[in-house]
Amino acid sequence: MYAKNNSCFYLQQKTQEIRAIVGKRWLQKLSTCMLVMFVSVTYALFSGSTTASALPSPLLAQVDLESNFVTEAVDKTESAVVQVTVSRTIGGDVPDFIRPFFGGIQSVPPTAPVVQGLGSGFVIDSAGHILTNAHVVDDADTVAVSFQDGRILQGQVLGKDPVTDVAVIQVQAENLPTVALGDSDKVRQGQWAIAIGNPLGLQETVTVGVISGTERSSATIGIPDKRVGFIQTDAAINPGNSGGPLLNAKGEVIGINTAIIRGTQGLGFAIPINTARAIAQQLISTGKVDHPYIGVQMLALNPQIQQQINNTPNSGIRVEEDQGILVVQVGKNSPAAKAGLRTGDVIQAINNQPVTKPSTVQQLLDKAGIGGKLEMEVLRKGRTVTLTLEPEQLPTIQTR
Description:
single chain; alpha+beta; Thrombin, subunit H; 4 domains; 7-stranded antiparallel sheet; 6-stranded antiparallel barrel; 22 strands; 30% strand; PDZ_sf; membrane; protease; Trypsin-like peptidase domain-containing protein
């Protein structure tokens, strides 16, 4: 019995030794195989040989996209991006009581001081129309437009709209490069954003980031009296970038870089190109823009905002709905007030079209125009009310 058990123990021990030897040899072969594979792939990647084509094509496509989409977008657009140099003369004629100090009445008075400002812009068509910001060309006496190819052309301001901060300049030249305009209504948070401009006079500067937000109101970002739902980006936008294009990954213009908030880092804003394009068409045609208004402040509702408003003491508003457009304030003697719209009303539809964003309300308002009709379906304390509003011309904004 002992001998039998001893034999079994011997066989088990030998079996384990054989397995260990086989295992070591298998590991050695596996290690050798992996080393050969590593050397082969490394050689293919770094030698420039055709062996690199053995890599999976989706991986190569992904590497190419990550490496080149910014440069491809810039190459597609940068020749149509311009530097806008504006000269403004400050002061006027020398007062009579000062003239004796310059040799009497007959003497030529000293030249009034001239201030220069820098901005950016981009060519949108072969007729030489250039989009930029209204504040870039405000009070301009002369406008010089510098192109990437070295040309410097005199520009004419066809019109500017301080309400949206959009302006159109025109230059007379042939064979002008132009940008491709995208669709800003399709912009989403997290998408790539590429800003091109001339910050601090440094021409053809490119910065990259993402879309941080959309539909930012002027009141929210500290730029009063602008009727724009701004695109927010973390692509660096500095003085001189104003008027330059904000691009998507395809190299299409989705906005006009327009502002930075002082004292903050990483916040830039752009006018959606769909808004700018509509304003530009009016400026090119008539040199001015008609802005219909109804006189309300609006807020898009969702469950979180509904809860926040209802939980705020002394808000003065009780919101029963979590979808639609909340009327936050109604201007005195405004078209909305005349039609009976009230603070706390929730707009559900305009002209039979559901509305969930202030930008949609603005689009329908612009479509109706001054003197048009807006049929509003409104929820008020649980019941539906239908109101008819007639938009009027936006009152002139007094600026300093």
